[in-house]
From TrEMBL:
Organism, scientific name: Panstrongylus lignarius
Keywords: Disulfide bond
Protein name per its UniProtKB record: Putative trypsin-20
Phylogenetic placement of the source organism: Eukaryota, Metazoa, Ecdysozoa, Arthropoda, Hexapoda
Domain Peptidase S1: 1-203
One Gene Ontology term from the biological process aspect of the record: proteolysis
Family of this protein: Belongs to the peptidase S1 family. CLIP subfamily.
Membrane-spanning ranges: none
GO MF annotations in UniProt: serine-type endopeptidase activity
């Protein structure tokens, strides 16, 4: 199970690692469902494109992004909600960040979840896993401890725009049961570094972004934007 989101009327962005299992038989997409066991709004993808720069590495999976092309039925076209990709990174202090996805967690359920993060971008942002070449955004929970939530492909949303794609849950200490604390980091592929590749296929996306001047994103909570979060069911 992976998460994805529309960045254009026919393009879905997700994580490349979702397709690592071998020869893919089919990829089913469920649009706008709160529970991924729902049978409503289920479709097949028309095309899968994995980043040319993707490297399958357990610790440092570079360019962990993929694009899915889908033709949405007419009855859903007018209702489809697109999450815009942010290209302005000059004023990061005021960003409000939210992670959304269907990933595995202590909740042990099949529903969509949202969590807030204090997100950083500098070299040491990911704790014991170095943020080489600033390719990632890494977040920590907003508070002392919380239940762990591990997702792949879901968006990191700051001020209503996508800034990252969920990559991996990193643990730099001794985790007790399913509780995550100050030694747990949520890593996201930084979309600012991937816009050149994305824009080759999605023409509505800018090919460059304005680089950040500082490395801190606000963790203040805000409501989930009105977007369509996608469930990906990949069969190998």
């Amino acid at each position: 199970i992976c998460t994805g989101f529309f960045i254009d009327s026919r393009w879905i962005l997700t994580a490349a690692q979702c397709f690592d299992g071998g020869k893919i038989e089919k990829t089913e997409i469920k649009i706008d469902v709160n529970d991924y066991t729902s049978t409503q709004n289920t479709f097949r993808t028309k095309q899968l494109i994995i980043s040319d720069h993707y490297k399958r590495d357990e610790q440092y999976a570079e360019s962990d992004i993929a694009l899915l092309y889908i033709r949405v039925p007419f009855r859903l076209r007018t209702k489809r909600k697109i999450l815009l990709v942010d290209t302005d990174w000059r004023n990061l202090e005021s960003r409000k960040c939210l992670a959304v996805g269907y990933g595995k967690g202590a909740h042990n359920d099949t529903r969509l979840h949202a969590t807030t993060h204090l997100v950083k971008h500098h070299y040491g942002a990911c704790g014991c896993f170095r943020n080489i070449e600033h390719r990632y955004l890494c977040g920590q929970i907003h508070g002392l401890v919380d239940t762990c939530f591990n997702d792949a492909g879901g968006p990191l949303i700051c001020n209503g725009r996508a800034v990252g794609v969920a990559n991996r849950l990193l643990e730099c200490g001794n985790k007790v049961n399913d509780v995550c604390g100050i030694d747990t980091f949520y890593r996201y592929t930084f979309l600012c570094t991937e816009l050149g590749w994305i824009s080759r296929y999605v023409r509505s996306i800018s090919h460059h972004c304005k680089q950040p001047e500082i490395g801190l994103l606000s963790s203040s909570l805000r409501m989930t934007p009105m977007i369509h979060i996608i469930v990906l069911l990949v069969t190998f």
